[in-house]
């Protein structure tokens, strides 16, 4: 299967990129790099892709396992190298689950399945970064 994305220059430092879903996003550099800061940054988008990919897996498993989760969020904290080309060499991925009756064992299984088996973006990140997975449970 092939993905085909078209990314069109809008002038200055801004671009618009489409997606197979038909949706588009705006990409722009910050003012310190000659942009207007009105779009998403490319490297940060990679972190959104990582969290989104794994999040979709986990959300699907929460539904399949009929788990009671009030809130679920993923915090992604990445270290950027100092030298050009700058890239993420380490990433901490924190899975936060909130609820009054969390099944920690099954939630851990859902995260593990995503991290180790299902999330293709996670596998891509493994090629260039050290990944640190953390699961945090918050009782509400």
From TrEMBL:
It holds the Pfam family OsmC. Gene3D superfamilies: 3.30.300.20. InterPro entries: KH_dom-like_a/b, OsmC/Ohr_fam, OsmC/Ohrsf. It comes from the Bacteria. This is Peroxiredoxin.
């Amino acid at each position: 299967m092939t993905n085909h994305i078209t990314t069109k220059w809008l002038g200055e430092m801004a671009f618009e990129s489409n997606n197979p879903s038909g949706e588009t996003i705006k990409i722009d550099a910050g003012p310190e790099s000659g942009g207007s800061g009105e779009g998403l940054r490319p490297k940060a988008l990679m972190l959104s892709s990582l969290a989104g990919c794994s999040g979709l897996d986990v959300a699907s498993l929460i539904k399949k396992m009929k788990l009671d989760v009030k809130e679920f969020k993923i915090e992604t904290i990445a270290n950027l190298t100092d030298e050009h080309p700058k890239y993420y060499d380490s990433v901490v991925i924190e899975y936060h689950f909130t609820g009054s009756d969390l099944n920690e064992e099954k939630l851990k299984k859902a995260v593990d399945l995503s991290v180790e088996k299902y999330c293709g973006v996670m596998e891509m990140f493994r090629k260039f970064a050290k990944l640190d997975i953390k699961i945090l449970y918050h009782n509400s």
